[in-house]
Amino acid sequence: MSPKLTGADVAQHSSADSCWVIVHGRAYDVTEFLPEHPGGSKIILKYAGKDATEEFDPIHPRDTLDKYLDRSKHLGEVDMQTVKVEAKDEDPEEAARLERIERMPPLEQCYNLMDFEAVARNVMKKTAWAYYSSGADDEITMRENHSAFHKVWFRPRVLVDVEKVDMSTTMLGTKVDIPFYVTATALGKLGHAEGEVCLTKGARKHNVIQMIPTLASCSFDEIMDAAEPGQVQWLQLYVNKNREITKKIVEHAEARGCKGLFITVDAPQLGRREKDMRSKFSDTGSNVQAQSGDNVDRSQGAARAISSFIDPGLSWKDIPWFLSITKMPIILKGVQRVEDVLRAIEVGVHGVVLSNHGGRQLDTARSGIEVLAEVMPVLRQQGLETAIEIYIDGGVRRATDILKALCLGAKGVGIGRPFLFAMSAYGLAGVDRAMALLKEEMEMNMRLIGAASIADLNPGLVDARGLMGGHVQTVPVDTLGLSAYDALSGPREQARHAAAEKGGMGPKAKL
Amino acid sequence: MSPKLTGADVAQHSSADSCWVIVHGRAYDVTEFLPEHPGGSKIILKYAGKDATEEFDPIHPRDTLDKYLDRSKHLGEVDMQTVKVEAKDEDPEEAARLERIERMPPLEQCYNLMDFEAVARNVMKKTAWAYYSSGADDEITMRENHSAFHKVWFRPRVLVDVEKVDMSTTMLGTKVDIPFYVTATALGKLGHAEGEVCLTKGARKHNVIQMIPTLASCSFDEIMDAAEPGQVQWLQLYVNKNREITKKIVEHAEARGCKGLFITVDAPQLGRREKDMRSKFSDTGSNVQAQSGDNVDRSQGAARAISSFIDPGLSWKDIPWFLSITKMPIILKGVQRVEDVLRAIEVGVHGVVLSNHGGRQLDTARSGIEVLAEVMPVLRQQGLETAIEIYIDGGVRRATDILKALCLGAKGVGIGRPFLFAMSAYGLAGVDRAMALLKEEMEMNMRLIGAASIADLNPGLVDARGLMGGHVQTVPVDTLGLSAYDALSGPREQARHAAAEKGGMGPKAKL
Amino acid sequence: MSPKLTGADVAQHSSADSCWVIVHGRAYDVTEFLPEHPGGSKIILKYAGKDATEEFDPIHPRDTLDKYLDRSKHLGEVDMQTVKVEAKDEDPEEAARLERIERMPPLEQCYNLMDFEAVARNVMKKTAWAYYSSGADDEITMRENHSAFHKVWFRPRVLVDVEKVDMSTTMLGTKVDIPFYVTATALGKLGHAEGEVCLTKGARKHNVIQMIPTLASCSFDEIMDAAEPGQVQWLQLYVNKNREITKKIVEHAEARGCKGLFITVDAPQLGRREKDMRSKFSDTGSNVQAQSGDNVDRSQGAARAISSFIDPGLSWKDIPWFLSITKMPIILKGVQRVEDVLRAIEVGVHGVVLSNHGGRQLDTARSGIEVLAEVMPVLRQQGLETAIEIYIDGGVRRATDILKALCLGAKGVGIGRPFLFAMSAYGLAGVDRAMALLKEEMEMNMRLIGAASIADLNPGLVDARGLMGGHVQTVPVDTLGLSAYDALSGPREQARHAAAEKGGMGPKAKL
Amino acid sequence: MSPKLTGADVAQHSSADSCWVIVHGRAYDVTEFLPEHPGGSKIILKYAGKDATEEFDPIHPRDTLDKYLDRSKHLGEVDMQTVKVEAKDEDPEEAARLERIERMPPLEQCYNLMDFEAVARNVMKKTAWAYYSSGADDEITMRENHSAFHKVWFRPRVLVDVEKVDMSTTMLGTKVDIPFYVTATALGKLGHAEGEVCLTKGARKHNVIQMIPTLASCSFDEIMDAAEPGQVQWLQLYVNKNREITKKIVEHAEARGCKGLFITVDAPQLGRREKDMRSKFSDTGSNVQAQSGDNVDRSQGAARAISSFIDPGLSWKDIPWFLSITKMPIILKGVQRVEDVLRAIEVGVHGVVLSNHGGRQLDTARSGIEVLAEVMPVLRQQGLETAIEIYIDGGVRRATDILKALCLGAKGVGIGRPFLFAMSAYGLAGVDRAMALLKEEMEMNMRLIGAASIADLNPGLVDARGLMGGHVQTVPVDTLGLSAYDALSGPREQARHAAAEKGGMGPKAKL
Which helix (H) or strand (E) holds B354? Predict the structure, then answer.
């Protein structure tokens, strides 16, 4: 066994000419890798000769260096006692955040999925929050995703026996407790040290399916390993320009027991998310963005950095090949118009997810629930409503949202950010409670609309006309008129002495 | 006569093993009752060995202990002089509330029903306010209930002789002064010491009907007893899993002279009201929530606590039985779709209330006025518009709201919270004024739409197209664009000296 | 000539048993009149034995005492030197108002009609502002009146020769410079000492017609006298229960040269205006409200006080009688549905004003412009579009509003409050500028829509579909979701030193 | 060579009787020109006998004095050393602005076109900002222009090969990199010393066309001279009452190589822009507004001042003459209804711009994108969709806006203010970045809607129903109801000590 390297040894290689970095106690020579780094060389050079673990971890699965860096560049263990720990600058924003964490609300005070988001916003690192919470352009689609559910209202049946409510269903043949799955979201370790594995455990506890993201912080195998026997997982796939790599991923997933392949079709290029870009600006340290070397704009955000391998040339022609390399059911994730659903049926895939990628790709793309309302009547008209499984994701926050989607014809819904926020704020306990709250809401709401089982859900239970009339934007506000208007106000409190003179009345007398 | 118990006697029984409590000067052994308490044992144990009267009162009718606790557990009178009075913690919120009560606006400053709500919000106990004012989930339906009336506009007739306006009508055969009734709302003593009896008196004064709630703070008989001879009352019924209990209640009500049986059909389970749940969190004392013993989440709110007896299995099959056990007219309260109105006619009941339970049950359920606009054209088309009496409730705040409902075909409307708020703030005087204001508005507005009597109201007097187009949600706001916009502002005041130089003009000259 | 009375003489009669008051230097014995006073006796008794001029003036035309108080009760002149001047209480609100008047914006800073309202709100007496600015109930119709114009958009023609623009038209045969008239509004002296006469002068200057209100602060003859030769005025009529009085008024108006009789048909009872009522509460002094003696609620506002004579029994049957007693054209003011326009044509009147009385009567009554859009297609279909002159009023603030009304078929529009506000803030100069601004806007906008004359206006120049779909109310706001949302923000300013290090750029370099 | 004049020489001519001014170091006798000055004589007299360069520059092209002032009045050079420099008053607003400039955000922090506007608002001179940012009346149309794009949503195609995206197209035969052009906007030097020439350079860099404004601060030739060989420019034309002047301008433009003549047809009179007028009020110095001599209202704003030559008589009859005097393609700029597009085709022009002049002319005129949605279906129905090139402008801020216009049938879009704001804040670098951002957005968004080239864009890619239903204005807000409502709030933070007792959880544990 060779002797350990010292901090001083590594520190000598601190330039683009010779660049060593330490990750998890081991040194690596990344000099030749610098120009290939998807996040740009600058971000690596910031850590040249130093320990980069903290920066490396949330963005790279554990096996990244093994997979992508030639063994000859693995320089072996470092005696971490000899590595100088750099003093960090005082950051008043970070200090304030740590204070907020001290005071964060107890978990039991979260009564719905929005509550986790409110807490997460206060306690997450700024850049992590920006990455998770951001959407494309003006974030209109991102917000529309949830608000679109408010265009659908219930027409409940009364006097139905709902003593026993069964909210279980099947998705791609798997029996689940409730019709949602944990959809794929990237970089889970930004929010919580455990990363996606935390979601695996939550999904197990509530018997729902987890979709494993291509861009996970944990490696695929770590996430599979975290599952208990019999627990079902799916794989979300960004298709690599190099189809051999893709093929290996797919075959490996199938071999490991994955039960569904969700090919993302709405991301030939990952979106511009300005909130993310802005948060990166003053923080070259977390600057993982560039697509082409050192001179790129230093503010592209995490999304662009990690996605350069995705093939923008992916097209319908590729689908038969996918069908040929796996027996897993194939689902197209990100379909957004009825024409493409019909084509998906024709081409023989097993499902589609009507999705706009959480509002992170194309702004003013329509919500999944709206596309669903466009798709299902056409399918029914053509007798195709069972030809394929239809899922939606985006904006699901309440069990009522799930019910609306199912009434309109979805097989299930994907939920992403809410579980990330629950995890970021409270870890597994947060994920567990978030799912438990959904079940509690679901049971109650099925009772209240008069449905004892998923099979009872149907379009007659909702009024979805609000989705039919196009997107409403009101006339810009009449500033002058409004500010001249003297709004009505309620009764005024009395001055104290006046009240005293009058003597007690009403509630006062009651005390 | 046995000697009185002392405080010390009772204080010895302060655990789950032996639990005595004092209520209204009498001791009770509730040890065996602990596991059966609908509100959970924890809340009782907090008062084990102590006086629980203050906590007991608003939630339990007087006769509760007589009815549900075996005589053998009634331990007799306690010498209250010997009972230690516990010092209460100082509570700055409560102190601020008491100060607000000192300054509360005089009753005559309330000019409409919203005014009572504004005052009540300031002067009610936090938990009582939370129980009354809360709705399901995001409280969207709760607010929609009133705002839906703003989708209906008037088409008044002019040049009609309206010197004499008669706003009286009949409901289930009873002549009333104005077409509203006091609908059933639970736990009246949370707002006012007198509870539902206060509403009885108000209803009498204005000759309108009171619907007595199953979950009243006062007992059914107390409320009946408070009525004057000839005063008509109805009973709202939550159907018990044990039909024998239900039968007794119905027969008793009929025997006592109740003139209508309103069976609640929209509450197989009482709703989650997060505002209520949140208000309970820090207050185990008022924690009356659990459904199954001690380990329940301590924040379910009052509603869940008191409703475990309700039968979620109630269905259309049960209706003939109800028709068989009483001669009172039967009305289904909480119908929400035209299909169920047609079925109600078929099954032979005498009326329906189109209601979403004040927005407390299913969020994004439609408002009563909207369902009415769906129902009546179908009934008219089928010649059934007089086959049944149709009522609505939810969101009625103005006489114009009542008029809109009647124009669209309702026989009358139920009003709940506004009278609770008036009562909570000002007692009977508040209820009286609230009703008087409605009458004043009603008379004026009937004149203004050109209707001299209720019979003159018809659909041609309103434009209800706003209810027909589905639920409108606008495009999420363009944050960046709006914040960059430099809004117009009006004329600017002059600096003082500039004005002085110019000399007086306009109003100044007039002084 | 009898010697003058002294202050001491009058002061002896300061009770309900013997009540004298001084008005404009003369004493009156109003003891017997007390129970008949429409505003209640209380308000008079406050001035018993004292000088009531200041309170009397804005509410009563000069000739009131001559007309309604028997000559025997006119006690003659008072030596005002001998009348004690009462010290007024310091009123901080009033002091603040006087300060605001010192700083009020110069007139030239008012660029539109809203600007006058903004200034008036700051400088008018609270009760006067409340009387002018208030509307019925929630003031929804009052605001809808203007905002409804924003539902109508232009479809301008280009490349039309608009060098010369002629905006003159005729109304009931009178040629006017621009198609608006000054509509009738009550109690002009509340806003300005000169009262309605100020509007007479403004109307003259701009050659538009003034409609004289029944409830003017100036007497009818004062207003007629203020007109210059050839200046046209109309009369707005509230019909008295005593038709003889009404007949006298009509005949007198015709004799004096009035050119149009506008019978108000939307006010069988004057509306409840809560802002007005609330402002009166603490001010018994200006308490002119009661309908039946002393014990009335002391907060009914000015409107109710002055209107008890109005006949709520007025009906279509009365119209032939009006046609028989005058040769003036008769116009029904306040028609609100197409059916009543058709009936007006049938009954033979000469015009209608589609109006909701400035939103002061029935809340959620439709705007004039909306009713117009309902009426005209029906008239055109029946070939009746020229059978009658159609006017609208309510919410007109911009020349574009006038143009929209005329495009849709109105002959002209009435404007009320804006001139009151201009007058209240700046007197005649304000009224003059307000009208001049409208003319300036009108000329420009006729050019911009490609209309060289009023005859060029037609429905094809507007897109009025926004008026056709009913009244839109959006789904209640998703409070939790919105507050959890982290809105986008623009670029952040740099800390000062950072900018300094970087050196100048952009605009900085330019300085 | 004559000796230079001195400051004292000039200072002697400081009245209306003899008025000399210095501009760029040369003296001019403008005494006789005073009454003809479009901006009124007052503004010149303010500088009588003084140096007027600073005021003169942004509003007048360099060659103005040569063109419009007789040679005999050019008095020759002034020795500027002898001219007294006037101390300026301290202006706290201006001082604050200069401070804001010190701290202005670095250019790279601008991620979209709205960001430039936000910065410009902070750093531009108040009057310049007011001139650029203002719109007609209530600025409703100005804001609608952008918000109308939010009524159009995408229906993207997935699984299209978008590896290579070609966003180039042709406009009037010229190949451009991206389908927008820099539309004409007046007075470029108000925002930046270099004026329109700055835009010329930006347009060159990104290979897009610049439209040269009639009312440029730079002279036409300066702007043409600034172009590089082969760079294409168009001319925007306000037609002069004197057609000979117009003819000369057109012929000169053609001779200099202009490739398109855009005749403005929506401005027979330049609009009232109240924000501009208000900003001028206290600043007679920049008071360039009057149309007829000295006594005009001193607050008409820049627009009215510079536009008195425009011919309001321009009509369809004139178009053949234009076609006869030039071979440049003629485009009508400002068409607003389908009827006029059809007429444009009939009359033989080559294109139209559907535009409302940036919301600066007629308020509540419809947006270009809405008119486009009206026009194209009619053209397609009549087989005329290629008969003419259709452009739109107004409100374009995002590449998605451009894509929506092109999907609906536009050949390209004009962008004005955003480049002015970018230039005003950051000069050429700002313009460059603004255009680069649009290209970056455009490439991404074409990928995301599944269009590899401009030819792939078609109406099926958008859902434009939101443009079809008329203009939506919601019911005025229910003030009392809203203020009584107690909105939901999220989980509350704990007091510090409570949290400390509980010990760490969630994120805290992670630290």
Answer: strand B351-354
Asked if the C-beta of B278 comes within 8 angstroms of chain C's C-beta atoms, the answer is no
Q: Which chains touch C (3+ CB pairs under 8 A)?
A: A, B, D
Q: Show the tokens assigned to C344.
A: 């007006």
The one catalytic residue in C28, C47, C131, C238 is C238
β-strand partners of C29: C20
DSSP secondary structure string, A236-272?
Answer: EEPPBSSHHHHHHHHHHHHHHT---EEEE-S-SSPPP
How far apart, in whole angstroms, are the C-alpha atoms of residue A112 and residue B225?
44
User: What does C101-157 look like in DSSP terms, one character per residue?
Assistant: HHTPPPGGG--SHHHHHHHHHHHS-HHHHHHHH--STT-HHHHHHHHGGGG-EE---
d(CA D36, CA D16): 13
The beta-carbon neighbor of A472 closest among D466, D480, D500 is D466
- Cβ pair A240, A311 in contact under 8 A: yes
Q: What is the pLDDT along chain B (511 residues), one digit of tens a residue?
A: 568 899 999 999 999 999 999 999 999 999 988 877 767 788 889 899 999 998 888 888 878 888 888 899 999 999 999 998 877 778 888 899 999 999 999 999 999 999 999 999 999 999 899 999 999 999 999 999 999 999 999 999 999 999 999 999 999 999 999 999 999 998 899 999 999 999 999 999 999 999 999 999 999 999 999 999 999 999 999 999 999 999 999 999 999 999 999 999 999 988 889 988 888 754 433 333 333 333 334 344 455 556 778 999 999 999 999 999 999 999 999 999 999 999 999 999 999 999 999 999 999 999 999 999 999 999 999 999 999 999 999 999 999 999 999 999 999 999 999 999 999 999 999 999 999 999 999 999 999 999 999 999 999 999 999 999 889 999 999 888 888 898 888 888 887 655 444 443 334 333 3
Contact list in A for residue C434 (CB cut-off 8 A) is: none
First to last CA, chain B: 83
Hey, are the CB atoms on C488 and A275 less than 8 Å from each other? Answer: yes
Q: Which site among D432, D448, D493 would you substitute to test the A interface, given the most A Cβ atoms closer than 10 Å to its Cβ?
A: D448
**Angle, helix B368-381 to helix B399-408, in steps of 10 degrees:** 20
Structure tokens given for D98: 């200069």
How far is Cα of residue A249 from the mean position of the Cα atoms in its chain?
21
Structure tokens at B78: 């306690």
Q: Taking each helix axis from N to C terminus, what angle separates D126-133 and D113-123, rounded to the nearest 10 degrees?
A: 140
Residue D159 φ/ψ, nearest 5 degrees = 55, 45
CA distance B488 to D135: 10
Other C-beta atoms within 10 Å of C100: how many? 16
Q: Which residues pair with A23 in a beta bridge?
A: A26
CA-wise closest residue to A232 among A263, A247, A215, A253: A253
Min distance D459 CA to chain C CA atoms (Å): 23
Separation of alpha carbons C386 and B294, rounded Å: 80
Task: Dihedral sign for Cα A293, A296, A301, A304, please.
Answer: negative
- Chain A window 152-211: which residues touch D at a Cβ cutoff of 8 Å? 192-193
Q: Which domains does chain D have, with CATH numbers?
A: 7-82 (3.10.120.10), 107-270+307-467 (3.20.20.70)
State the Cα–Cα distance between residues A64 and A67, nearest whole angstrom.
Answer: 5
Residues of A in contact with D159 (CB under 8 A): 265, 314-316, 318-319, 332, 340
Rounded Cα–Cα distance for residues D132 and D119 (Å):
14
The C-alpha angle with vertex A138 and arms to A133 and A142, in degrees rounded to 5, equals 50
Say whether residue B262 is in contact with chain A using an 8 A CB cutoff: no
Closest C-alpha among B416, B319, B363 to residue B138: B363
Taking CB atoms and an 8 Å cutoff, what residues of chain D touch A362?
A: 154, 156, 400, 445, 448-449
Q: Name residue D376's amino acid.
A: M
